Amino acid sequence: MASGASKLVMSFMASVLLALTFLLSGAARATDATAAAAMVRNGGSPSSYGGGGGAGAALISRGGRSLLQAAAAAAATTTTQSALFSLDSYGAHGDGERDDTAALAKAWSAACASAVPAVVLVPASRSYLLRQVTLSGPCESTIKLMVKGTLVASPDMSNWNESNRRYWIVVRGVDGLAVAGGGTIDGNGEGWWENSCKINKALPCKGAPTALSFHTCNNLSVNGLKMVNSQQIHMSVEDCTGVELAHLSISAPGTSPNTDGIHDGTHGLHVTRLVCGPGHGISIGSLGDDNSRAEVSDIFIDTVHLYGTTNGARIKTWQGGSGYAKDIVFQNMVMNSVKNPIIIDQNYCDSAKKCETQEGSAVEVSNVVFKNIAGTTISKNAITLNCSKNYPCYDIALQDINLEMVDGNGATGSICQNAKWRKSGTVVPQPCTGTN
Ligand SMILES: *[C@@H]1O[C@H](CO)[C@@H](O)[C@H](O)[C@H]1NC(C)=O
Ligand SMILES: *[C@@H]1O[C@H](CO)[C@@H](O)[C@H](O)[C@H]1NC(C)=O
Ligand SMILES: *[C@@H]1O[C@H](CO)[C@@H](O)[C@H](O)[C@H]1NC(C)=O
């Protein structure tokens, strides 16, 4: 593939106490079938884990059905066993003040070496302070990370290296991982926000950590988790296939800079049942910055409620990029007081100085469907299709759209430049009256 293929495909920009609940699944769906198969193996005594945990490290949990429900269901007639690796058995304090990074790392190593499916447990009602930590695979058996309590980031920014400050918790090279438990991952981001150049203009612009990153994996499931106040991006998934992210709630204050919800560099993304607001709404992009190539396709976004967001359904690309964003559907959306309900912007620019005009190349935008979208906008232009002169947007379909000014404040309108669109059903506002 060309260098610099799409990195950032979709970000749910989290802001003002944005509450985000959604079900999202990748091209191949993760199932617990693999876990079930592996669980049939017999595990013995704790000593068989050999993972180098401390004394009393591994506790066998017989019939761990509540923890591995799907597996238990699939292997209902088999006695299943899984090994439990609780942070508390590895010397964690769980007081939210003393550092528990080593305890998590040790519990993880032991679990990863387990001959039977392993559960790493973050116990309920307690808080575990963590510095940067990388949980690596491959592992001997499937692993489940049960976060019942809270993982909280160290507030001390000096725990982060200048050269290495873009992550907090990283999971790398683990196949079949399930993360669940209903607990909380707290990025404790206030200090980072205060030191962001977007908040304090006197400071140089430097990236801050992504709270939870998954790299290089197959069959990842993250289901039922609360993420709050990340230092920068809340969650990122890179180089993974078969990803299912479900029932997540992500929130940070509106004043927090770039605390995006989820970044997912993938093809074949399916998002349903998303509630978001206030915040930045749903964006595909930005794509093509620094003349980079982006390849984004097969994105399906269905059943969304946005309230008070800056954008509704947005695709944004920088001038001078290359590649494409195509085969994208936004449908069944309700918007309340959204600033830019429908927007394709091929002239996106988010830098301190004005972006140079670069008409020689662009990330091409095509086959985008906006369907069954209704609600209110706070700005007059409810539909914006601002496309490139030499690479116009084409195959843009607008179907059954009704966007009105909030409080019935006059008629809505649209802006259009270099866009080839068609409409069906009733579309309010009429797109691109005047020049096209
Ligand atoms: C900072 O990075 C260097 C080199 O990667 C490493 O040796 C050192 O342990 C790191 N320090 C901290 C506090 O992580
Ligand atoms: C991922 O899950 C699929 C479907 O259950 C399975 O066929 C495949 O072997 C799994 N891949 C890995 C690497 O675990
Ligand atoms: C399209 O975006 C560019 C850059 O922001 C802006 O200068 C231009 O006026 C926009 N076009 C329309 C028709 O608003």
UniProtKB/TrEMBL annotation:
Q: Which PROSITE patterns match?
A: POLYGALACTURONASE (PS00502)
Annotated InterPro entries: Glyco_hydro_28, Pectin_lyas_fold, Pectin_lyase_fold/virulence
Keywords per UniProt: Cell wall, Cell wall biogenesis/degradation, Glycosidase, Hydrolase, Secreted, Signal
- What GO molecular-function term can you cite, just one? polygalacturonase activity
Q: Where is the active site?
A: 280
Q: What is the residue range of the signal peptide feature?
A: 1-30
Record-linked Pfam families: Glyco_hydro_28
Where does this one sit in the cell?
Secreted, Cell wall
Q: Which GO terms describe its biological process?
A: carbohydrate metabolic process; cell wall organization
Native source organism of the sequence: Oryza punctata
Per the record, the similarity remark reads: Belongs to the glycosyl hydrolase 28 family.
Give the protein's recorded name: Polygalacturonase
Under the heading PANTHER family, the entry gives: PTHR31375
